[in-house]
Amino acid sequence: MSRFGSLFAPLRRFLVVGLFNTAFGLATFPALYWLFQPMGVSYLWLMTAAQVINVTFSFVTNKLLVFRTKGGVRAEYAKFASYHLLVYLGSLVILPTLVERVGLTPVVAQTSYALVVIATSYLWHSQITFRSRRPLSTKPE
Q: Cα(first)–Cα(last) distance of the chain, in Å?
């Protein structure tokens, strides 16, 4: 692969893995709800469990398939989860602002925010979460 192509390989992997993570994430809450709601488990607890499962699943796929780092699991997971906590807290401020002050519909506001999150997620994880680790493989793609 050309030098230019290999420069963008992690970004391509990030986008493909992101699609897979999104599909997994969209299925997690309904699956938990279907399994545990009949036992009387609150949907809010199930939403929290789904969030933890999805962030962890996304961490593993990004670590192994996108950034291919080795070691440093605790530190990397803390940085990864921190980003997702910041995104969540940011959404509590940004979405109401976009809806109530700017006048966007909630769907347009959330979609716009999601696009910013995708871009910043790659930057955060490539420059902060997974930056200090050596790649698992140095083979060109």
A: 6
Give the integer Cα–Cα distance in Å for 123 and 119. Answer: 7
SS3 of 32-98: HHHHHHHHCCCHHHHHHHHHHHHHHHHHHHHHHHHHCECCCHHHHHHHHHHHHHHHHHHHHHHHHHH
Q: What is the pLDDT of residues 16-70, one digit of tens each?
A: 999 999 999 989 999 999 999 999 999 999 989 999 999 999 999 999 999 999 9
**How far is it, in rounded angstroms, from Cα 130 to Cα 13?**
14
Q: Is 134 helix (H, G, I), strand (E, B) or coil?
A: coil
Q: Burial of 91 by CB count in 10 Å (0-12 exposed, 13-18 middle, 19+ buried)?
A: middle
CB 42 within 8 A of CB 9: no
Q: What are the domain boundaries of the chain?
A: 3-129
Q: What is the pTM of this model?
A: 0.81
Q: What are the tokens at 44?
A: 């809010």
DSSP 116: H
With a cut of 90, say whether residue 140 has pLDDT above it.
no
